[in-house]
Write a structure and sequence with these properties.
single chain, 34% helix, alpha/beta, 15 helices, six-stranded parallel sheet, Rossmann fold, binds adenosine monophosphate
């Protein structure tokens, strides 16, 4: 971010899409905290900061008369929290672009921060409307993109806007730099053994990631709901477990490809099975290949935990994407917890560990282990697409 900020107005696209409770209080401010270094740096360097972000999906939940539900989705909800974090009085503009926005941006002085209203109140934001992007760009001299969480979207404020700033007048923020650097550390010549842990609900969401990992990893550990499609590919009986019937052939192909490439695939030997998808269900531990009719695997079992942990602890580079079971329900959270512990143990022995994409980030945060892994990504879908090898529009637009 080596631009000259002195006496400049700097439009910073951040990802302040934070979760709010019924009273519009922020329940997790990770995304705000992650953007602070960039904002503080610009202020310290003599610039004025204009913040833009989206919050939720206001266009999907319009009022009955077709208007935007301002009360629910306004970024005003964040102002008092931002004031505290930045130790100054953040100004709030009730629109993203327009007369008032232009006036307030113009009047903004060095050292001040102006938060614009939710970018998604503008219909053209998610469609990448060039006119909207142009209008946004006229508010500032410089553009900083620090919104990694939306880098995989070609929206007006995240990608299209960049072309209105010349090279030298735009840059990535510190968070964006960190996300890219950490993902690249994993993708470019990582120290072996490299182990990828992939879990979560569906194989279909992770096909591209699995394909990419075949070229990268020595070991691929597959847990969570998606493991059962692979069990079926190996001829197992999986009862009522989550299986994507139309992906069994693909799972067979992936297993064969791994074998050919010498990549070791680990599936959970045993599972915690339940007689219904509920916290109160009856549960037992059984071999994952022999799950009874009417029962379903909702977590990896103790044998799997032990085997997976041993592989993880002996790795030098680790990627973790997706939980090992239905960790939101306490009776099925043990497997995910055991894997989180193994990843932190490997990290303490010098491994590089990246937790990125999907619910594994929530799991690590929930367990209070975020500080004990090398890097926790703030971008779920964006990190997944980056790791899959896709070029993200928010990154591409800057070059
Ligand atoms: P993802 O967003 O792909 O990381 O998927 C996360 C979701 O997968 C979580 O909501 C988990 O509850 C769910 N999940 C994990 N294991 C299982 C399982 N064995 N059966 C059903 N859902 C699962």
């Amino acid at each position: 971010m080596n631009l000259e900020f002195k006496n400049k107005k700097v439009l910073v696209r951040v990802d302040f899409n934070v979760p709010l409770d019924d009273k519009n209080k922020i329940t997790d401010d990770t995304r705000i905290k992650s953007a602070l270094p960039t904002i503080k740096h610009i202020l310290k360097s003599g610039g004025a900061v204009i913040l833009m972000s989206h919050l939720g999906r206001p266009q999907k939940k319009l009022n009955e008369d077709g208007s935007v539900n301002v009360k629910k989705f306004t970024l005003q909800h964040l102002v008092s929290h931002l004031n505290k974090k930045l130790r100054l009085k953040v100004k709030f503009c009730p629109e993203t672009v327009g007369k008032e926005a232009t006036k307030m941006a113009k009047a903004l002085k060095t050292g001040e921060v102006l938060l614009m209203e939710n970018t998604r109140f503008e219909k053209g934001e998610t469609t990448g409307d060039p006119k909207l992007a142009k209008a946004m760009s006229t508010l500032a001299d410089l553009y900083i993109n620090d919104a990694f969480g939306t880098a995989h979207r070609e929206h007006a404020s995240t990608a299209v806007i960049a072309k209105h700033f010349k090279k030298g007048n735009k840059a990535f923020g510190f968070l964006m730099e960190k996300e890219i650097e950490n993902a690249n550390r994993l993708l470019n010549d990582p120290e072996g053994p490299v182990t990828a842990i992939v879990g979560g609900a569906k194989v279909s969401d992770k096909i591209m990631l699995l394909e990419k990992l075949m070229n990268l990893a020595n070991n691929i550990i597959i847990g969570g709901g998606m493991a059962y499609t692979f069990m079926r590919a190996r001829g197992g009986k999986t009862g009522n477990s989550l299986v994507e019937e139309d992906k069994i052939k693909l799972a067979t192909r992936l297993l064969a490809k791994a074998k050919k490439k010498g990549v070791k695939i680990y599936l959970p030997k045993d599972s915690v099975i339940a007689d219904s998808f509920s916290e109160k269900a009856k549960k037992e531990t059984k071999y994952s290949m022999r799950i009874k009719k009417g029962w379903m695997g909702l977590d990896i079992g103790p044998k799997a935990q032990k085997e997976f942990s041993e592989v993880i602890v002996n790795s030098k580079t680790i990627l973790w994407n997706g939980p090992m079971g239905v960790f939101e329900m306490k009776p099925f959270a043990k497997g995910t917890m055991a894997i989180a512990k193994a990843v932190t143990k490997a990290t303490s022995k010098g491994a590089f560990s990246l937790v990125g994409g999907g619910d594994s980030v929530a799991a690590v945060n929930q367990m209070g282990l975020a500080e004990k892994v090398s890097y926790v990504s703030t971008g779920g879908g964006a990190m997944l697409e980056f790791l899959e090898g896709k070029e993200l529009p928010g990154i591409k637009a800057m070059s």
